[in-house]
Amino acid sequence: xxxxxxxxxxxxxxxxxxxxxxxxxxxxxxxxxxxxxxxxxxxxxxxxxxxxxxxxxxxxxxxxxxxxxxxxxxxxxxxxxxxxxxxxxxxxxxxxxxxxxxxxxxxxxxxxxxxxxxxxxxxxxxxxxxxxxxxxxxxxxxxxxxxxxxxxxxxxxxxxxxxxxxxxxxxxxxxxxxxxxxxxxxxxxxxxxxxxxxxxxxxxxxxxxxxxxxxxxxxxxxxxxxxxxxxxxxxxxxxxxxxxxxxxxxxxxxxxxxxxxxxxxxxxxxxxxxxxxxxxxxxxxxxxxxxxxxxxxxxxxxxxxxxxxxxxxxxxxxxxxxxxxxxxxxxxxxxxxxxxxxxxxxxxxxxxxxxxxxxxxxxxxxxxxxxxxxxxxxxxxxxxxxxxxxxxxxxxxxxxxxxxxxxxxxxxxxxxxxxxxxxxxxxxxxxxxxxxxxxxxxxxxxxxxxxxxxxxxxxxxxxxxxxxxxxxxxxxxxxxxxxxxxxxxxxxxxxxxxxxxxxxxxxxxxxxxxxxxxxxxxxxxxxxxxxxxxxxxxxxxxxxxxxxxxxxxxxxxxxx
Length: 560
Ligand SMILES: Cc1cc2nc3c(=O)[nH]c(=O)nc-3n(C[C@H](O)[C@H](O)[C@H](O)COP(=O)(O)OP(=O)(O)OC[C@H]3O[C@@H](n4cnc5c(N)ncnc54)[C@H](O)[C@@H]3O)c2cc1C
Description:
The protein is 29% helix and 22% strand. The chain is of the alpha/beta class. The termini are far apart.
């Protein structure tokens, strides 16, 4: 460990990533130094007093390609301030996590409060960190560990529980990685032409494989698996019904935030519940790089993390899950409803539709042919890794577009938001506009992408301004986040919908009941819903109360 006056942070022979703490206060620095000792096995820990010296060292480290996992900096007084250092770290080492060290109670100081809020809004820090007070100070360690956990998750080396090796541009490889990321499955990805990728392919007996290869926790090798094989055999989630599944009190269609919340409340209140999900848990939220407005998570959390926690919570309470399976039909009945899932049937005394929405497609043929090879609908945090140093475009100026652009800017060399509207302020929240501004995201208003070119993958796009002026520019990726359509085409006429296909509710006794008694709709699929994670979760809890009332009105369930 380097402390006090030792100021040389780079050491090419030392492969450990750097964990750096900077605090000009000698007493605080001594306490931080003592606490950070426990990380020395895996990180090169350095604790130094000078903010200026830290900046110089971090600049040197960037030139050498050294890895930085976490920088903690106190504000200090005069000269270069800690928050300014952390803002610079964002451009020098974009993947490093950053925490502003503050004293206990400093939130009562107006200037510190303003600095923290501004730094969070501009994405200059991940969070504030209370300086250690006790020895050991587990509260301090909790924050440090969370930041390191996030860093490791985004920078997985070598093998993980699941390791994917694939061509960087292969749509199949992308599909597998996306599935794992959205389901919160710990995994590492290596491009098949990288040193590590080649080594793993040789080790598992498929050197030079053109198809994606997944190595499981027990060393089992899956050669170009389907997503169902991967789900069933590699991370073992249920994709078939049990032998004697009988009748459920409630069947929930969709495992987005609304469906997962309904599952947690149903199972925790003693109802026999099943959730059917055709893709990944988490729904749209699963693709969010950081949800910052969900109650109880002041630092924000990834949609994948939220979905995994909710899934585990429902599972522990006893919910049955059927994943990677699509509900294709519903026959409403008086005492029981029947859901069609392939050849199988699920009988349930009530049904909760939580099937959400899907992103609209662009319909530009020259761009559409790069779907999965440069054109992506929606955005997943896992996508960004493939575009490190590249040029990315985000179409859509809603909050989801802003979030995607802010996250992409950590990896891509240049990120541009393209929007038809004249003013991005019409559709994007102020905090995100500030964040993308600080991240250097370019915004092209009154502009559309009208064409695309490339050989194997997307290479160029043509932008057209409202004035008619056109420009063809280099492009590695286009992420389209342009509004959504409900998943309701499979529903029978008995379930009334509005002209856009959203399910109508509230005509009868219960607020979330559809036109078919005992069939409820919640979350984004419901006409008039607020398109937010928290409201979807709220509706998921309220609907179970209404399900109870409905079940009470039926004859008693058969004894099980
Ligand atoms: C990139 C992005 C970022 C976002 N960020 C935020 C944010 O920061 N804060 C916020 O509050 N909101 C955010 N949102 C919006 C939020 O994610 C949605 O409002 C929320 O996910 C809606 O939840 P839901 O459960 O109703 O539907 P969805 O999340 O759409 O989930 C529906 C699920 O149903 C499944 N399904 C559909 N049809 C079937 C079928 N026939 N059979 C089986 N399964 C089916 C789908 O596969 C899907 O998993 C974001 C959205 C996106 C896309």
